[in-house]
Amino acid sequence: MNYFGKQIKTTIFGESHGTCVGALIDSPPCGVKINIDLIKERLAKRRPNPSTSTNRVEEDNFKIVSGIFNNVTTGAPLCIIIDNKNVDDKVYDDKYGIMRPSHADYTQFEKYHGFSDHRGGGRFSGRLTAALVAAGAIAEMCLLKYDIKIGTHILQVKDIKDRNIVMMEDTYFLKSSDFPMLERDAKEKVLKEVEDAKKSGDSIGAVTETAIYNLPIGLGEPMFDTVEGELSKAIFGIPAIKGISFGMGFDYANHNGGDANDIPYTVDGKILYRTNNNGGINGGITNGAPVIFKTVVKPTPSIYKEQETVHFMKKEGTKIKIEGRHDPFIAHRACPVIDAVSYLVILDLFAVRYGNDFVNGKV
């Protein structure tokens, strides 16, 4: 499917080296003032830095072509388009049929019988995440009155670890930071790893951590439309994401219930929790604590080292040395995408629980 969401559906379209990429938000709340500068700021966070990323730097010029009037959302489908200008697809034509290891070249060929746009990964390219970020900025505006704060940072690269997000102020810091890490020493070590990977023609992966603050209690549905389920489905739409866990996650295997349970207590009639091992979710429903989750971002599969592979049209072994413009490290650019997708999912969860008039009403 090319969309996610139950009440407010987000559709992503375009290809890496096509004319444009874009997003269509179907049934957005009406009456939301559009902040063009916020969209630009969020896109700038995703834009590559040639020192740590690909040399393909797009200006990300965008147009909102429907769904707004007098700079306010109308409630009609909102379509935002981002031009692709810095394209260079010759290298992909020359090597068509040769499987780039860990890419979708062969699977999309089989799925679409050879009719798909293979250039730069086509439909499966990280370029499409620009559209997700732009749409996420719209969702962020829709939730402005509820002061929902979302921040994502690089938690771990190899044996280098950043500290966990522990307060809402950390999300402010991450929004203003030039590289999404909280500790300076850890950041410098990761940047050195990125530099080494780039020099050797290789790439590295990472674990990210996301925190969502100020969610009301009661978002999400039991069983199959849980907060975890809705976030996971959307987050897995981001290229290179290979795992997600909530709260303590897989570390639960190292604990007993006695030390893993989140013990509640009250302050002035408000229920709080001494820990947040469940990541702000019980029974698939928000419990008032921050929603916390981690994702695994795999190393960028496009590397400049020669690798053995297969020519899937000739059905014979061969070798490939990938050319073009690629990221030695993608996790820092994935962080604003995870934020954006989270805003879109939270917006939909609000609409499912309260209806689309929640923006103009009161939860």
Characterization of this structure:
The structure is a single chain. With 363 residues, the protein is an alpha+beta fold. The chain has a single domain, classed as Chorismate synthase, AroC fold, CATH 3.60.150. Helix content is 27%, strand content 23%. The strands form six sheets. It has a five-stranded antiparallel sheet with strand order 1-2-3-7-4, covered by helices on one side. Strand 1 and strand 2 (9-14) form a beta hairpin. Helix 7 crosses helix 9. The model has no long low-confidence stretch (mean pLDDT 93).
Radius of gyration: 21 Å
Level-2 CATH architecture: 4-Layer Sandwich
Strand order of the largest sheet: 1-2-3-7-4
How far apart are the termini? 31 Å
CATH fold group: Chorismate synthase, AroC fold
Low-confidence stretches: none
At the first level of CATH, what is the class? Alpha Beta
Strand content: 15-25%
The largest β sheet comes out as:
5 strands, antiparallel
Element order: H for helix, E for strand: EEEHEEEEHHHEEHHEHEHEEEEEEEH
Could you state the oligomeric state of the chains shown? single chain
Q: How many DSSP-defined strands?
A: 18
Keywords:
363 residues; Chorismate synthase, AroC fold; 18 strands; five-stranded antiparallel β-sheet; 9 helices; alpha+beta; single chain
Outline the fold blueprint.
Layout: E1 3-4, E2 9-14, E3 20-26, H1 36-46, E4 62-66, E5 68-69, E6 72-73, E7 78-83, H2 90-94, H3 105-111, H4 129-142, E8 149-157, E9 160-161, H5 169-176, H6 184-200, E10 206-213, H7 227-235, E11 241-246, H8 257-260, E12 264-267, E13 270-273, E14 281-282, E15 285-286, E16 291-297, E17 307-311, E18 316-320, H9 331-354
Antiparallel strand pairs: 1-2, 2-3, 3-7, 4-7, 5-6, 8-9, 8-10, 10-16, 11-16, 12-13, 14-15, 17-18
